[in-house]
Amino acid sequence: MGSKQTAIVQIIRSEIENGSMKPGQKLASIREQSQRFACSLNTIIHVYQELENQHLIYSRPRSGYFVVAREEISVSSHPARIDFASAAPDADRMPYEDFRHSMNKAIDLYKDRLFDYSDVQGLLSLRKEIVKLLQNLQIFTNEEQVFITSGAQQALHILNGMPFPNGKTNILIEQPTYWGMLNSLDVQKKSVIGIERGPNGLDWESLERHFQSNNIKFFYTVPRFHNPLGTSLSARDKKRLVQLAKTYDVYIVEDDYLADLEDNSKADPLYAFEGSSHVIYVRSLSKVMLPGLRVAAVIVPPSFIPLFRYHKHAVDLSTSVLSQGALEIYLKSGMYIHHIMKMRELYKERIQWLTEACRIHLPPDTLYAAPTGGIFASLQLPVWLDSGDFSKRLELRGIDVMPVDRQYHPSFPKRNLLRISIMRADKQEITQGIRIIAEELKITAKPRAFFRTNWINL
Questions:
Q1: Distance (Å, whole) CA 274 – CA 202
Q2: pLDDT per residue over 108-139, tens digit each?
Q3: Is there a domain that residue 73 lies in?
Q4: Which of 33, 208, 244, 253 is a Cys-bridge partner for 44, taking CB atoms 3.0 to 4.6 Å apart?
Q5: Does residue 78 register a pLDDT over 50?
Q6: DSSP state, 399?
């Protein structure tokens, strides 16, 4: 753009942003603007085109140009806080510009299908791209076994409600576990059995007993970067789990929501182990990118394809074509991998900073799990502290954390845990936040030493 054109764009943009021009208000005609700015009609045409590209105005045929409605941005009067609670990425880390290109391209590519129903299983072209992506995780499947859902939450809800080929009815879940799974099970009034997921993994004796005797339809697990504990199962444990599932005809629903953040090439998902015929793999494709995109992939055994299709169609005629098309282009162009590599390095650094801050600042009798990757760590409070009350103390000091109470089934005994997320906390905030947590622990400490077990760097 020439300097004259750029200056006019800035003037009109400022009038829109400062409220001089209201949403829906008609702009002056091209001729009127050319007289106002003493320029050619062609210059104003280019100015309006640029403002359209910036999504500030839009045109109505034979009516003129109008201001686009926009969300009012309010400046918070609250002081800055340290966010250890959120599981959504930093707003300034989201790939808005790259994804906007993908979205615009998808509109051009799928414009004849955007407002129609698509295949309930998802766009075939996107499913093929996902098959390629998953090969990097040692997951070898085909597009016929892949379903696209409106987020991993929808996939879990469908699986909870549908019958399984083994004819069993009880659902076994780790305790604690992802709160969204608990909500879905509660809404559907499913029969739920809990098994403890501790710092050292699963209680294998109890697990085998449940598989053998308790009519288990499927076992829901988060093997990698557990939510809320942050820990991961070892390769040995994954292999053992898959073998037990096959032996006792129990299916495993593997929630691999943070696979993108794994930098250990040998940390395979359960689906990669022998016996994957009993593993249903659920993978978010927007968790560390744009959570609001709501796109996930589910890999089901061949025998599940008609059944899952039927039940998905019952709750969702089709997943958004625009979201699917944009993600397909984002994958094909290499932008997805490029963004994930940056996020992987960022969050790995933050987890390392968190581990170091815990080592330096927390009282020596404090029990915590500080993994080598992912976004969560967990801290066990002394028995005399209530996690809800302690989180309120921290809230008064500008620290937001999440007690793990809501991530337990009501019938299961709860451990006194806090979940700490590093998704929206930088190095300085992590250090300051852990220092404040340490101060509060010391203030509330009992005179006797707290019994310590080895729950560090799992």
A1: 20
A2: 777 766 666 678 899 899 999 999 999 988 89
A3: no
A4: 33
A5: no
A6: E
Beta strand 201-202 pairing with 216-221: unpaired
- The structure tokens listed for 57 are 């105005």
The verdict on 44 and 109 lying in the same domain is no
- 445 vs 419: which has the higher pLDDT: 419
Residue 426, domain CATH: 3.90.1150.10
Per-residue buried b or exposed e for 87-117, using 16+ beta carbons within 10 Å of the residue's own CB: bebeeebbbeebbeebbebbeeebeeeeeee
Q: Is residue 51 helix, strand or coil?
A: helix
Distance between CA atoms of residues 329 and 126, nearest Å: 9
Burial group, residue 78, by CB count within 10 angstroms (0-12, 13-18, 19+): exposed
- DSSP state, residue 110: S
Report which secondary-structure segment, H or E, holds 443: helix 427-443
Q: Please identify which residue in the block is written with the tokens 């006019």.
A: 8
Nearest to 56 by CA among 32, 90, 20, 91: 20
Give the type of residue at 377: A
Q: One-letter amino acid identity for 61?
A: P
Q: What confidence score (pLDDT) does residue 286 get?
A: 79
105 contacts: CB under 8 Å, gap ≥ 6: 326, 329
Residue 62 pLDDT greater than 70, yes or no: yes
200, 458 in Cβ contact below 8 A? yes
Q: How far apart are the first and last CA of the chain?
A: 56
By CB atoms closer than 10 A (0-12, 13-18, 19+), residue 302 is exposed
Residues 350 and 331 in one domain: no
Do 211 and 134 fall within a single domain? yes
What the block records as the tokens of 23 is 């949403």
Residues, the chain = 458
149: pLDDT strictly greater than 80 = yes
Q: Which of 147, 184, 136, 373 is nearest to 281 (CA)?
A: 147
| Residue among 405, 354, 416, 410 at smallest CA distance from 383 | 416
Model confidence at 302: pLDDT above 90: yes
Rounded CA separation 112/230 (Å): 44
DSSP-derived letter for residue 92 is G
Does the model's pTM come out above 0.70? yes
The better pLDDT of the pair 222, 73 is held by 222
**Rounded-to-integer distance, Cα 164 and Cα 83, Å:** 40
Residues 372 and 437 in one domain: yes
